[in-house]
Amino acid sequence: MPVQQYLRMIENASVAQRCHATAALAHIYLHSELDNDERCATEAVLTLLLDDSSPKVRLALAEAFSTSVRAPAHIVASLARDQIEISTYMLGRSVLLSDSDLIDCVVSGCGEAQRVIAGRARVSPTVCAAIIEVGQTDAILELLANTQAKIMPVSYRRLLERSGHIAEVRALLVDHESLPADCRHSLAVKTAEALCQMNIVQALMGGRRAERMTHDACVKASIGLVAATPIEEYPALVEHLQLRGDITTAFVIRVVAKGQIDFFGAILVALSGYKHSRVRGLLIDGRPNVLGALFSAAGLAESTHASLCTAVQAWRDIINGKRKLGLHDVARAMIEQIKGLEAYAGAVPAAANDDLLSLLNGIHRDAIRENARRSMLSIAAA
């Protein structure tokens, strides 16, 4: 049918007739062999249909073009900015929408438009960043549930800053294997803080006890996180912990007692300013006096140097196969070293080591409990 005749036909047609004609014309445009003039004329009519007063006509156009790579790009872009019942067809399906188009729709669109974009078959890092920055909660939850969304580490960090207080967000983030170690630590902290603020916890424990237990749980979670963190992520995790003020003497003692020597090395690199290769070499075969100098450069209290050296040597022996020790044995060796110093005339006064002994005794008790737990599980599984 000539385009002029088509235009005359739809002038006085009903909405249903216009919808049918629109779908037919769109099919002709996509699937028929048209010469250049016919294609241009047909495209012009389809463009005019964007101004049809009935949303049903524009919906028919969206249904026809939403999954096609041959649809006119300007029509696709216009339909993507139409009312939500129409735009969702394009936002959720069309591969012709560029990242710029999608970001514009995220920024200017409603929450439902954001949610549809977040659920696309492919969501690029830049679109993910836009949703995380300005998206409503439903859109963020949809994005986190979408396994094809490419979320970058910097976006995860911004997400925790903006929406980490939302329980549903935290629940979905736990299952993200690509979540960076520093973000996983922030997630654990925010979860602990949320639990601490629960009315039932406050009523059962009281504010101070709840805060103390939350802090202890966060420290233990941090140590556990180190074991699951790839070595290449250590510097970022150390920087994150530094900014939070979490790299305390107690934390360092726990790291070494637990045998996380590579992470201890990353901490020493950050605190001392020494190169990684030098720190690694000293931890492998450095003598106690050289290690003490390294610990001093890192700002570690002198009262901790001897026990740290004891632990480092114990883990060296374990790695080299010279001794078979467990975590509780290493902690016990650190305790005995401190007690030996106290018994030695002229040594550091016992009061200076009280906190350290208390910490190590706690680590020792926890290690014994964990060994017993593993033994019982092994027996039960046999």
Helix-strand layout with pairing:
Blueprint (H helix, E strand, L loop, with lengths): L2 H9 L3 H17 L4 H13 L6 H11 L7 H7 L4 H10 L5 H10 L2 H8 L6 H10 L2 H9 L7 H11 L3 H7 L7 H16 L2 H7 L1 H21 L6 H11 L4 H9 L3 H12 L3 H10 L2 H10 L7 H15 L7 H17 L10 H28 L1
Helix pairs in contact: 2-3, 2-4, 4-6, 6-8, 7-8, 7-9, 8-10, 9-11, 10-12, 11-13, 13-15, 14-15, 16-18, 17-23, 18-19, 21-22, 22-23
Would you write up a description of this structure?
With 382 residues, the protein is an all-alpha fold. 73% of the residues lie in helices and 0% in strands. The longest helix has 28 residues, at 354-381. It starts with a helix and ends with a helix. 30% of the residues are buried. The model has no long low-confidence stretch (mean pLDDT 86).
Sum this structure up briefly.
The protein is mainly alpha-helical and about 375 residues long. It has helices spanning about 5-10, 15-30, 35-50, 55-65, 75-80, 85-95, 100-110, 110-120, 125-135, 135-145, 155-165, 165-175, 180-195, 200-205, 205-225, 235-245, 250-255, 260-270, 275-285, 290-295, 305-320, 325-345, 355-380. The protein has 23 helices and no strands.
